[in-house]
């Protein structure tokens, strides 16, 4: 029975959308970066799909992706894990 409880709480079965998950991530990120950085580097990111523990987001360009990965990779990864759990994965679409 205990295993069923864990499964029932899983994001896979909780009917959460990519918009909801990314929105929760944005709330956490907004607390940790300046308003200008948030508007510049996080608001343009669009959630595309959530499949199990895998969130795919779209970024405007290769430059944008490279800059975000270089400057905010750790923050984004930690945030995704805090929202989706230890198995969380983030994928980018350009």
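Q: What amino acid sequence fits the structure above?
A:
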């Amino acid at each position: 029975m205990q295993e069923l409880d864990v499964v029932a709480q899983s994001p896979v079965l909780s009917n959460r959308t990519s918009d909801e998950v990314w929105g929760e991530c944005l709330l956490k990120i907004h607390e940790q970066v300046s308003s200008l950085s948030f508007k510049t580097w996080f608001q343009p990111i669009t959630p595309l799909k959530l499949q199990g523990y895998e969130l795919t987001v779209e970024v405007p360009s290769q430059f944008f992706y490279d800059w975000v990965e270089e400057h905010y990779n750790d923050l984004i990864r930690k945030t995704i894990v805090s929202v989706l759990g230890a198995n969380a994965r983030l994928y980018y679409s350009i």
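Q: And what stands out in the fold?
A: The chain has four helices and three strands.
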